């Protein structure tokens, strides 16, 4: 370990010791951005960037465990990403499958896939569903694995599910329109029953949501980190928590 690593380690311990544990976010959403740019910066193939990014997931979840975060949502693949070149997409699917399988095998976290799973290859869907079933009895950090996820797509799916449910009850469109409120839609989101994200972290320096948890993040706090996702360190995570704890949440006021 070099001097720089030692210095960051000591700095991270100081931040951790100073954190107000009464304001730790219950739910943290993470946009794992920058794998491709990391690969380019280091002269690696794109697939290696994705693999390095996948390797970072266990570290992040361990950090979340240590401070008491209850729910983590990891955005691994957007619906827009499904339009990437076939070779890159095929590599990425294998990396995602391996990453999710490893999460389940760790027997520490409860895995819950969120997204338009019908748009994914059959084998990827099977891996995601199997990992969810294998971890359903666990009580650790609840991990939403967002694969083939898009915020607009989620809202459309929620409305569609709501309409189908009420059609099955014989409710007319006019009757539904009279009583429809935000909670009706929230009950049909991929994350139904979960607390909304208190904190959303995006790596790589981009400062936008790109459709991540559009409905759920209405009152979230945002933290944008310059590091590419494979280079994201514990000290970066702790800085995000420190920044979050210093904010006065007004919930839209």
Automatic annotation (TrEMBL):
GO molecular function, one term: ditrans,polycis-polyprenyl diphosphate synthase [(2E,6E)-farnesyl diphosphate specific] activity
Cellular component aspect of the GO annotation: plasma membrane
Keywords (A to Z) from UniProt: Magnesium, Metal-binding, Transferase
EC number: 2.5.1.-
Annotated active site: 33, 81 (proton acceptor)
CDD domains: Cis_IPPS
GO biological process: polyprenol biosynthetic process
Binding-site residues, substrate: 34-38, 50, 78-80, 84, 202, 208-210
Binding site for Mg(2+): 33, 221
Cofactor field: Mg(2+)
Superkingdom to which the source organism belongs: Bacteria
Cofactor mode of binding and number, as noted: Binds 2 magnesium ions per subunit.
Alphabetical list of PROSITE patterns matching this protein: UPP_SYNTHASE
Pfam families named in the record: Prenyltransf
Oligomeric form and interacting partners: Homodimer.
UniProt family annotation: Belongs to the UPP synthase family. Z-FPP synthase subfamily.
Stated role: Catalyzes the condensation of isopentenyl diphosphate (IPP) with allylic pyrophosphates generating different type of terpenoids.
Name recorded for this polypeptide: Isoprenyl transferase
Source organism (scientific name): Embleya scabrispora
Lineage: Bacteria, Bacillati, Actinomycetota, Actinomycetes, Kitasatosporales
């Amino acid at each position: 370990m070099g001097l720089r690593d030692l210095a960051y380690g000591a700095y991270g311990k100081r931040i951790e010791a100073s954190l107000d544990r009464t304001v730790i976010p219950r739910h943290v959403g993470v946009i794992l951005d920058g794998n491709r740019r990391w690969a380019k910066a280091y002269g690696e193939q794109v697939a290696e960037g994705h693999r390095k990014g996948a390797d970072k997931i266990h570290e992040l979840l361990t950090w979340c465990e240590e401070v008491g975060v209850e729910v983590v949502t990891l955005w691994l693949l957007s619906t827009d990403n499904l339009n990437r070149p076939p070779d890159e997409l095929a590599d990425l699917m294998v990396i995602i499958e391996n990453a999710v399988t490893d999460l389940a095998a760790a027997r520490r976290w409860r895995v819950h896939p969120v997204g338009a799973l019908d748009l994914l290859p059959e084998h990827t869907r099977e891996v995601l569903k199997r990992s969810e079933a294998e971890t359903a009895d666990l009580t650790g950090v609840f991990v939403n694995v967002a694969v083939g996820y898009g915020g607009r797509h989620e809202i459309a799916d929620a409305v569609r599910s709501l309409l189908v449910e009420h059609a099955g009850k014989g409710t007319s469109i006019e009757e539904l329109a009279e009583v429809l409120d935000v909670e009706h839609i929230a009950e049909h989101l991929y994350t139904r029953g979960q607390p909304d994200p208190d904190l959303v972290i995006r790596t790589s320096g981009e400062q936008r949501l790109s459709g991540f948890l559009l409905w759920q993040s209405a009152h979230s706090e945002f933290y944008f980190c310059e590091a590419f996702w494979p280079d994201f360190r514990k000290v970066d995570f702790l800085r995000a928590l420190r920044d979050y704890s210093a904010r006065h949440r007004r919930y839209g006021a």
